Every structure is written in C-alpha cells, then in structure tokens.
C-alpha cells in the first residue's frame, strides 16, 4: 500500500472513530444521567447503567430488532445508489474506472460488510422467542448497524477521493508499473499476458489526456502526460533485469492498434532493440502532441520536457537504442510543429532539445550529442526554407550554447559540432531573408567571444575565417545589436528567461578583438576579406 492510498484510508478510519466516540459519549452520558438522577430505581432494577441497558425485554425488543434490520438495509441501498451514480459518471469520462473500483479492497470490504450485516439481521429477526433474547447476537447486530451508519459519510468521502482524476491517473500508473515489473521478470505465458495489460494502462492514460484536452482541463491532461513519463522511468529501473521473453513481440502487442499496421521488419527491430515499451509511451505522446498542437500548446511543451527526461534516463542507463528512439520522436515533434508553422511551440521544443543534447554531453555520450546537433541543424535549414527565420535563429543560439558546453566538458566531438554550427548559415545566405542570417551570425559571434574570453584564439579565428566574406554593413549591424544588449532578461516574459543575445561584460568586450580581426573600423575601402588576408 503506497502513501497516496494509505493516507486517505487512515483519515477515513480516524473520522469513523471520532464520530463513534462522539455518538457513544453523548448517549452514555445522558443514559447514565437518566439512570442515576432522573430514572426511578427499584430493587428489581440493575445497579449500573450497562447492566440496565442489557436487560432486554423479550416482549418488546422485537420491534427494535425489526428497526435495526430495516435501517441497515436502507443504508446499504443508499450507499449502493450513490456510489453507482458516481462510478457511472466517472466511467463515462475515464476508461477502466469500474474495473479499478471493484479491484480496490476497501470498496469491496465496505460492500461485503453491508451484505453480511443485512443477512445477519434477517437471521436475528427470527431468532427471538417469547421468553428468550440472544443478547450477544443482538448487541453485535446493534454494533454492526451503528458502524454501518457511521461509515456511510466517511466512505462517500473516500469514494469521491478514489474517483478524483489525479487519483485515477496515479492508480493507473501504479498498476501499470506493477504489471510491467511482474511481467518482465516472469515466464512466457504470464509475460505475454502482462504485455497486453501494460499496453492497456498506457492507452487509458492517453484517453484521459485526450478527454481532458477536449474539455480544456489542463491540470488533468498534464497529470496524465507526466504519469506516462513516470511509468517509463520506473520501467527503466527494472528493464535491465527483464527476461528475453518480455522483449519479444507477443500476441497482445501484435494486435494492438499502434503495432498492428507496422511491417514485420519494424516489429523485429523493436524486439531486437528492446524498446517496444518506450516506443509505445512515446507513440502515445506523439498522438497527444498532434491533438494538442492547435488547442493546448502547453501540453506540447510538457511532452517535450517529459521526452527529454526519458532521454536523460536512457543516457544514465547506457541505453543507446532508447537514446536513438528519443531522438526520433523529438524530431517528429519538430516536423509536426514546423508543418503547423507554430513558431512558439518550436521555440519551446528546441529548448528541450538543447537541454537533452547538453545532458548527453555531461553524461559522456559525445557521439549521441553530435547526432543531436546535426538534427538541430537540419531543422534549422528546414525552418529557413519555410521562411520561419526565428526558428532558424533559435537553432543557432541553441547550437552555440551546446558548443560552449562541449568545450567546458572537453568533448572530443567539439570540433565537429563547431563545423556543423558554421554550416548552419550555408542555406541562409540569400539577402531576401537578412533577419535570419543576422541571427545565425550573431550566435556565431557570441561563440567566438566565448572562445576569446577563455583564451582559445584558434577556435575564434575559425569563426572569423567563416565570416570573412560578410558585407561590412551586415557586420556593423551585428556588432551594434550585440553591444546594445546589456541585460540578460528579455523585456517580455519568455519561457527561457534569458535574452539570446546577452553576454556578460567581459565576454562582450572580447567582441572588439573579434571585429578588429575583420578590420571593421578601418573604413569601407578595405573589405573584411582583404583585412583577414593581411
């Protein structure tokens, strides 16, 4: 039993105890008052309140027993009615609610309790005789009826908690992780059954997300998206210990809608790469991403964040096949976003792409980081061709930041990353999109200034050589715009929280050396190409 389920149950039991204590304290206080003060005591009457209470009269107690039986049946009917309505309303909105409800031990225990109490009352009602009262049975029936009355309201509170969207999401995720963990460590027959159940859990989370997006409920949608990520991260902890059968494509996978249309070769590759679980998670993400792109863009950003978390976990686990899969889906997000011409979402997704590549660098996976830089450069070219120049500029600044991190961690792929960075502007040379070219060049100047600040003049000169044929007016514009940015905070609220063009004062001062190499201040009669040659 986890903390998220144990706490509400403890609170439920505590409330029942408090209500019971209040009811019995009030009753016995007043009953004792009547016995000792206001009642008429004779020699035939017991000398204490409890004994007096238990001195049942066979001739009159039958009416009370009938009332007890009717009360517990009425309470059971009320509980069944209310719970059925609540569960049905939730089941119409969320898949699998009914199954989860009847798998919960507390729900089953409460229903069983009322059934037992009703049957108990029926048998008690015919056990009385004109000269005999079964006191133990009668008192126990009285206790059961009292408990049934007391648990009703707290139980309704538990049911409402149980059917809250956040609780449903957490329960689906927990059950999915449990099933996947058990299936990964079991034999073939049970393993294949667990595969199908695991897929169902992921699809239930996707259904909750889709319904929430349709209803504009961002909180629930975000919780379900995060639950898929948490499921993947928990699964990665046991993946290394899974048996070989778990990674094979069982019948439950083959018949699943997301797999049934795949060609046999692709299915074999999923089995060989041991990534069908993660593929399913991110395939769900891609479907949600497409759905949310036009209606709830914050979910797109969250999906990119969670995909990055999965990628970072893959780097720590040394799972290169999963790293490659994460790249494929991040690239799919970018393609979908550019096709929709959604600049803001592309800006946010690229932020997560950059953080993912940086995590790979810090994790010592330089080759994978280099692949990421190549992908980013590709989408920088694609966005430029689509005249989405701000996206191209964003790619430039992100790759520039990645080159800095590569330099700081001493990655041997830094030189190749720098070469890829300097190729970013090759398709941006058309003067018709001057703004996009300026953004790329400013990012390159910023990186050159960093190299100069850290005493790496040869790398800075490599960038200078790449810019030697730039027109003088373009270089002047670049310098003027970079020198004018003195605050790291942009003048509007942005998700990244930092101005692309900002450089610390010492780094900004290094631009003077860089532009001096280009002889920018020596007049228009001597161009940059001639100046560098000299």
Order of helices and strands: HHHHHHHHHHHHHHHHHHHHHHHHH
Mean pLDDT: 84
Helix content: over 70%
Give the end-to-end Cα distance, rounded to a whole number of Å.
Answer: 76 Å
Low-pLDDT windows of residues: 1-5, 524-534
How many strand elements? 0
Coarse shape:
elongated
Portion in beta strands: under 5%
Q: What does the oligomeric state look like here? A: single chain
- Biggest sheet character: none
- Provide a count of the helices: 25
Q: Structural class of the secondary structure composition?
A: mainly alpha
Radius of gyration: 35 Å
Overall description:
The protein has 534 residues and is mostly helical. 77% of the residues lie in helices and 0% in strands. It contains 25 helices and no strands. Helix 14 (276-292) runs parallel beside helix 16 (320-339), helix 15 (297-317) packs antiparallel against helix 16 (320-339) and helix 21 packs antiparallel against helix 22 (457-466). It is elongated, with a radius of gyration of 35 Å. It starts with a helix and ends with a helix.
Summarize the helices and strands and which ones pair or pack:
Elements: H1 3-38, H2 49-53, H3 61-93, H4 97-103, H5 105-125, H6 135-162, H7 165-184, H8 188-214, H9 218-239, H10 244-247, H11 251-254, H12 257-260, H13 264-273, H14 276-292, H15 297-317, H16 320-339, H17 343-362, H18 366-385, H19 389-409, H20 414-423, H21 434-453, H22 457-466, H23 472-483, H24 505-517, H25 528-533
Helix pairs in contact: 1-6, 3-5, 3-6, 5-6, 7-8, 7-9, 8-9, 8-14, 9-14, 9-15, 14-15, 14-16, 15-16, 15-17, 16-17, 16-18, 17-18, 17-19, 18-19, 18-20, 19-20, 19-21, 21-22, 21-23, 21-24
